[in-house]
Specification:
Oligomer: single chain
Helix content: 25-40%
Strand content: 25-35%
Distance between the termini: 48 Å
Number of domains: 1
Structural class: alpha+beta
Mean pLDDT: 79
Shape: globular
Number of helices: 2
Order of helices and strands: EEEEHEH
Strand order of the largest sheet: 2-1-5
Largest sheet: 3 strands, antiparallel
Length: 90
């Protein structure tokens, strides 16, 4: 049986709902979530450590385990705007 590869992401509760972490500052141990960027896939250990840190700092955070790489399923607002412009010109 082949071993299945998983992708791990961190989901954070925000005012707008669930946001996925898009970048990490390792030096300052901070996570960022930006709706204009694609979610950051990471190892299980890194995702667990940062999600635990977020929870300790009073953020509701979860580790999301996925069979699919979610970055290919998300389009940034800029890419979406460009796609709309391209569609209107046709």
């Amino acid at each position: 049986m082949t071993k299945r590869k998983y992708f791990y992401y961190i989901g954070v509760q925000t005012q707008g709902g669930l946001s996925l972490v898009t970048s990490i500052d390792n030096e300052n141990k901070m996570c960022f979530w930006d709706i204009d960027k694609k979610p950051l896939p990471m190892s299980k250990e890194v995702a667990s450590d940062y999600a635990e840190g977020l929870c300790m700092n009073l953020h509701t955070a979860v580790v999301i385990k996925s069979f699919w790489e979610l970055t290919t399923h998300f389009v940034s607002n800029e890419e979406h705007a460009n796609n709309l412009k391209g569609g209107e010109q046709e």
